[in-house]
Amino acid sequence: MLLVPISWAGRVWALPFLTALAPSERYCREHGRRHKKLTDWARRLVLQAHRWMLGRPLVLVAGSSFAALEFLASHVAAGVKLTRSPVEI
What is the residue-wise DSSP string for the chain? Predict the structure, then answer.
């Protein structure tokens, strides 16, 4: 989400700015494609957003489904700050 001040609303809105379709393992198997885990898709999106931000701080808030050491290590190495979501959805 991108935090944007909306003048006519008088507040800051969180707007989505980057999404990816992550096909299921079954879909990939049926169509003869290599399956990528959800953490692989998320890593690519976060690192892309980090490159676009050019030195601006990027804070990733994620649920426990992204608590994979490989996923976390790749972001720490890139300088992305990580925090756990206080509410699981």
Answer: -EEEEETTTTEEEEE---------HHHHHHTT-----HHHHHHHHHHHHHHHHTTS--EEEE-GGG--HHHHHHHHHHT-EEEE-SS--
